[in-house]
Amino acid sequence: MNEIEEVGRRLKDAYLSGSVAALEALIEDDELILDQVSSLTGFFINDSTPLHVAALRGHLDFAKALLTRKPELAIELDSSWSSALHLACTKGHF
């Protein structure tokens, strides 16, 4: 597994579990990890961002942590043209 795949795996583990501590550890290791999200697109379902998954799963603290560090994630759309807010609403997480 190369370094990009390892970072992608660690980020995926963090957003699937909603672990803010894991996210913070990733950011501590690489302050630019959230700027690299677009290069890790293959790791995310339907070209979604970690914020999309956090919204779907109701991981509010994780979503807040992401948006505090990278607010522009709020306007990212997945391959279905849905924002994280759209997904949160469809699951009743509002």
From TrEMBL:
Pfam families: Ank_2. Keywords: ANK repeat. ANK repeats lie at residues 46-78. InterPro entries: Ankyrin_rpt, Ankyrin_rpt-contain_sf. PANTHER family: ANKYRIN REPEAT-CONTAINING PROTEIN BDA1-LIKE (PTHR24128:SF101), HOMEOBOX PROTEIN WARIAI (PTHR24128). This is Uncharacterized protein.
